[in-house]
Structure formats: C-alpha cells, structure tokens
Amino acid sequence: MNNKLIVSIGNDHGGVDAKFYLIKYLCEREIEVIDEGTDTKESCDYPIFAKKVANDVKEGKATFGILICNTGEGMEMAANKVKGIRAGLIYNDDTAHLVKEHNHANVITFGAKFFTGEQMARFVQIYMDAEELGDRHQRRVDEIE
Questions:
Q1: Which of 27, 44, 69, 137 is catalytic?
Q2: Is 69 a catalytic residue?
C-alpha cells in the first residue's frame, strides 16, 4: 500500500449520522474514505459491516478502520474475530491515543449513543496523531497475534 492514508468506515443503523459526520471530517483533510456502512436507520446486523471494514484493513485496502454502532462494543467484538485485526473501543482522549500506542489498534470503534460527531472526530484525530510504541508494547502485541 502507498503512503496515502485510506480509512475504511462502517456502521449499522445506530451510527448513520456519525458516519456521515466523520466522512466529511476525513474528506476535508484529504483522507480517502471507503464507505462500508449502511446509509439508512432501518435495523440491520452490525457484524456484516464490521467484517467488511476489518477485511479492508486486513487486505491492505485501508490504513485503518472506523466502526460505529450504538455502543461500539458489538462492532469491536465482531472486528476482533478477523485474524490480524486489533480493534479497540475509544471512549475518551486517553483511549484515543493509547489504543494505538500500546495496542497497535488498526480498527477503532465508537458508540454513537454516547458521543457527538464532533467528539468522535476529535478522538479520530488523536488516534491518527499517535504513534505505535515498540519495546514492551510490541512484545505484547506479538503475543496477541
């Protein structure tokens, strides 16, 4: 994959508004976006979208993934079933950078029920600005794999 940042984003019915907000935020920063989510608020199954985003990341089509449902928990669990994916739920500024620095998360998840689009965009930016740390953190990530 080239050095251009590409983000795969997916959502279920609970994350439609947040997805559109984040796509706009990313595109304004000239970040390419792959939209793997639903565009309607009609009830649907979140694992379908989690798998699409996780596979985009696994296959190198995307640099990282963002998944949004009502709580973020279901998306996190579903994405982590895909080999090579390290999905982490973000719920504040600290977790936004720590999931990348310590856990090398390549997919981040959000609960749209608990955050505004603006808050999620701030968390995404903090995540993108963070760097994966080596040493003991790399050793632990290797143990997960």
A1: 69
A2: yes
